[in-house]
Specification:
This protein is of the alpha+beta class. It is 55% helix and 15% strand. Strands 1-2-3 form a 3-stranded mixed sheet. A hairpin with a 5-residue loop joins strand 1 and strand 2.
Amino acid sequence: MSSRRLLKAAEAIREVVATSILTDLRDPRVRDVTVLGVEVSPDMREATVSVSVMGTEAQQQLSVRGLQNAAGFLQSRIADRIETRYTPKLRFVLDQGTKNVAAVGEILERIRREQSPDTESQVDEIQQEDDLREGGTSVPNRLDAS
């Protein structure tokens, strides 16, 4: 099967799963779930669904278990809407991308706070000089207010 065909199938599966989770799935464990992507095996017998779940680690694991328990229902939705020889077996994995983004943001904020006051005053002076050269007025640095 061509790579393009697999990508199209993965996108179709992602749409069906995301829509079914939002509209048809009534499991109270499955809340605040976002379907990020789907990877389909070359033989179309298995699909790995990457999801992001807002909440604590326990809530995330609970939602993934709920999704795994609803996999058969979601597979039947896929079979109804997509014509393929095999309906892929779904496996749900928690995507850690958003968690990594938050960690990087915290590190950058810590670095910004640890900067010496001299460095911040130098940045302010350069900004004021640039503003005066452009004929504008000096505007205080908005980062200092936070």
